[in-house]
């Protein structure tokens, strides 16, 4: 699976804003030049009070509710964001930015180091944190003239950002919806991240991150990383229901036993997940962003998780899914407990689902009703016109 | 991590027996020459009625209760097998064979194709099944002059073999102890297997399995496979207790953030697991044996799982561990249900443990007491002298 970087993907022009003053990162380095690529849906009202920031997950991007420019597929949350949908674009002004460190237009390892042209940062890109991502989004929100976000919403790593927004800018977040997430990355999650990184490092086409020099990208390593991660996004039940032990094709004649090839349907599915992923994602971005997730630990940063939300007036709605074993319900419950200790306004819903972590991206009517209902209640409190 | 195959490991002489008539495999191929490497502990009694066959797991081998000739470490079950231990070598004659397809002396992908010398089978080694492994062990048991095994015992893939022994040779198995296992490999387990195989395939040093030609082994790919698998052997709780989010070393100065290196202790641990594994294990064996596990599906073979044990007089003791998510308790319960439907003699114990799948290899006094007690009861029934 050696392949050249898709030049079409790398050369797409994304809507963006440039911050010439750059961004001071938590690691101590200052990025001299910051690009934030973003998309918006709906219209900002006259009071600038109806803005909803959506934070995407590890491998998501800003193309939330429209055809993706690289894959041609529908937006990753087009079931949730749109007219008359839970995040109603007739009512809210929806913003989603590609995260710092990403590969869909925002500054990241694929960006030119000097900010203009020249070779990419590659693995010289500084280590970043969830807080750094939030800081970059805050610059965008300021640029758009929005003082207070009506809501910050995100699943998985997007949920980490939603929590971090509420901790860093309590007065700028009226409501926060952290979904299928945790206040820190667990040892098991760090372990899965590390397997993915080691798979990328092991691919000789990675070339210590300088793969632009040959134009060969570490497609095999990145595909293995994606395959391993993808298992963790599904529940055992979902895998069994979708594939069970079904064989892909009975070989004509013979015993049906073979060492190679995608004998079982689940293998073929995983291989497909791996190979399509490498067409749209940058390996160095994957390394950088998984590291940012590993570093995330709000409780450690504030001494105690409740301290992260001390005095907060933000309205929180925590959502978990019963079969999510990557960010299990217990993690959301721990956040709810900390918010209660901080006397914050919090509701917490565990959605019964057998779809695993990925449930937040899928057709889960209970989840969608919860989200729509919570936002409608908050809109009333915030005095938003319906 | 490029390294040459450890010639010391490959050239070790293992105790073995040669079957010149070979072995007809389920795939239709006949291996013209079969070597079964094995170790024994204790003494066979005059009635030849005290033999216990131990079946090892995916990456185990026949060095159950003695120093391993490659790693120099204690035997993998030295807490369980020995004088006055649960499998008491003062009482039982313990046999363990390296599985067919393995790399510690039994015929496998590393063996010469012509049975004598010349190039190894490599990936031309035929696809094998758990039943093929059992057939090879049966030849060894016959060779040792044993008509009926007092017990067949194994964990994980060893448990699959124990189940398969009881199904294939009900009259030759007085008691069976399948531990932390299942009657089939689940979609999730196949998926994890496939990630490991793809990691090996992705390593250019694998060279389509012909790595003996250059002497370079696919160490990086095999290490990634082992790392991914190793996470599944532990519980989240065990990982958290052992490592949590502890940092390996605080870098002197700086923010402590870095993209590379084993920042967290759990990363360093996994990397160590990966790199030590490749010194003792053959990549093509890993491919062959994981495939054999994927093919395993006793119910499919017999139409219904209870049919696999119809009329059986074997005494079964099924053991699962509460925190094992690779072979969860539900899988053992399903086997117990099938054995009940077959009116077989079965006891089933779930051991409370937070150590995950690996618990069967670790210091779990409840498990050891269960095993010792079950064997003692069976010994009385079998009329074995204590």
Q: In summary, what is this structure?
A:
Two copies of one chain form a homodimer. With 386 residues, chain A is of the alpha/beta class.
Describe the structure using short key phrases.
homodimer, 386 residues, alpha/beta, Rossmann fold, Rna Polymerase Sigma Factor, Chain: A, 8-stranded mixed beta sheet, 14 strands, 36% helix, globular
Description:
Two copies of one chain form a homodimer. In chain A, 36% of the residues lie in helices and 16% in strands. With 386 residues, the first copy, chain A, is of the alpha/beta class. The first copy, chain A, folds into two domains: 8-186 and 298-382, Rossmann fold (3-Layer(aba) Sandwich); 190-289, Rna Polymerase Sigma Factor, Chain: A. Chains A and B meet through helix 4, helix 5, helix 6, helix 7 and helix 8 of A and helix 4, helix 5, helix 6, helix 7 and helix 8 of B.
Q: Proportion of β residues of chain A?
A: 15-25%
| CATH architecture term of the largest domain in chain A | 3-Layer(aba) Sandwich
Q: Give the proportion of residues in helices of chain A.
A: 25-40%
Q: What shape does the CA trace of chain A take?
A: globular
What is the rounded Rg of chain A?
Answer: 21 Å
Looking at the structure, the CATH topology of the largest domain in chain A is Rossmann fold
Helices and strands of chain A, in order, run as: EHEEEEEEEEHEHEHEHHHHHHEHEH
- The strand count of chain A comes to 14
C-alpha termini separation of chain A: 52 Å
Main sheet strand line-up of chain A: 2-5-9-6-10-11-13-14
Count of spatially separate domains of chain A = 2
Q: What CATH first level of the largest domain in chain A would be assigned? A: Alpha Beta
**The CATH fourth-level homologous superfamily of the largest domain in chain A:** Alpha/Beta hydrolase fold, catalytic domain
